[in-house]
Design brief:
The protein is mainly alpha-helical. It has two domains: 201 residues, no CATH class; 110 residues, Rhodanese-like domain (Oxidized Rhodanese, domain 1, 3-Layer(aba) Sandwich). The chain is built from 14 helices and six strands.
């Protein structure tokens, strides 16, 4: 079946192990095309599905365990660092923390199927102090479900393709190009999606200095202060129990569901913990679509405000 088949026959399990290890370590190298290819080649029994599954499981558990212990040791710092370099960072932290908060370790059963959630689930599980044995059990089961889905999908496609000798031969001949094209297409799609989001973010950002001026002017003139919302997860608030002056703590989902009660006659400022204010920017865009037009994310979030030397208050809860 051509060059790709020869390469896969000699290095199949090493390739699967290395590729999955890199992806789960945070590199933007999607492994789904590789698993599909391995499943397709298992049709001729040149590759063993059980051994392929084992290679994927071991690679994933090694990378996920490393992120788990880093999250447990460094907490929010490692989450911020990983979020900064993730191609899915616009949703990674808030999506993972919210899901982990509602479902706990069960989140790990389907985490690998969700972009962003896959990368962030292990360190946030560590940050949330989920017992390692529990983490290992659910993460292992989730990995087996994820791997078997794509390997068996490839096997199913291979069984269909094998019925046409000409098509199967052509598939093997162009396999390298097909897999490479699939990998590149996924990466390009993620990068384009990220660039579009970042472009919208630049237009919305509010600088800490601008917000400080707005607060001072409102106090001097007796007007109402800007409506400031702290979108951080409770885990982040526990680690740093401070908020901007007059800020209210409201979760992203709760804020969107209460969009009708958000004031339209004054500025609404959102901030989070993510170093690139991805969460607050995403929520701001969604609120604008719901009719809240004077809403903007704070550049740098809580850290940007604190680094600028502006005052902070104790936590205020709804």
């Amino acid at each position: 079946m051509g060059t790709f088949k020869v390469m896969l026959l000699h290095h199949a399990y090493s390739l699967l192990f290395g590729w999955v290890l890199l992806e789960q370590a945070g590199m933007p190298v999607p492994s789904i095309p590789i698993m599909l290819a391995a499943g397709t080649l298992s049709t001729s029994h040149a590759i063993n599905l059980a051994y392929s599954m084992l290679a994927i499981l071991v690679a994933s558990l090694i990378a996920d365990s490393a992120w788990y212990w880093l999250g447990r040791r460094f907490g929010r710092k490692i989450v911020d660092w990983l979020c900064k370099f993730s191609l899915e960072s616009s949703t990674c932290v808030v999506k993972t923390q919210g899901t982990m908060g509602r479902r706990g370790a069960v989140t790990l059963l389907f985490a690998k199927f969700v972009p962003g959630l896959s990368t962030m689930a292990p360190p946030i599980a560590g940050q949330a102090r989920i017992p390692y044995a529990t983490f290992l059990l659910y993460d292992g089961l989730g990995t087996l479900l994820w791997a078997s889905t794509w390997l068996l999908a490839g096997r199913f496609f291979g069984d269909i393709a094998e019925k046409s000798t000409r098509f199967y031969a052509g598939l093997g001949h162009f396999a390298v190009l097909l897999v490479a094209a699939a990998v590149i297409a996924v990466i390009v799609w993620r990068v384009v999606k990220l660039r579009q989001f970042r472009s919208q973010l630049v237009q919305l950002r509010l600088e800490p200095q601008q917000l400080h001026t707005m607060i001072c002017e409102a106090k001097d003139s007796g007007r109402e202060l800007p409506f400031i919302v702290d979108l951080r997860h409770p885990l982040d608030v526990l680690a740093e129990p401070l908020v901007l002056p007059g800020a209210l703590r409201i979760g992203p989902d709760d804020l969107k569901s209460r969009s009708n009660s958000i004031p339209r006659d004054r500025d609404v400022v959102l901030y989070c913990t993510c170093p690139s204010e991805e969460t607050s920017a995403k929520v701001a865009l969604e609120l604008r679509r719901l009719g809240v037009l004077r809403v903007r994310p704070l550049r740098g979030g809580l850290k940007g405000w604190k680094d600028a030397g502006y005052p902070l208050d104790t936590v205020v809860s709804l």
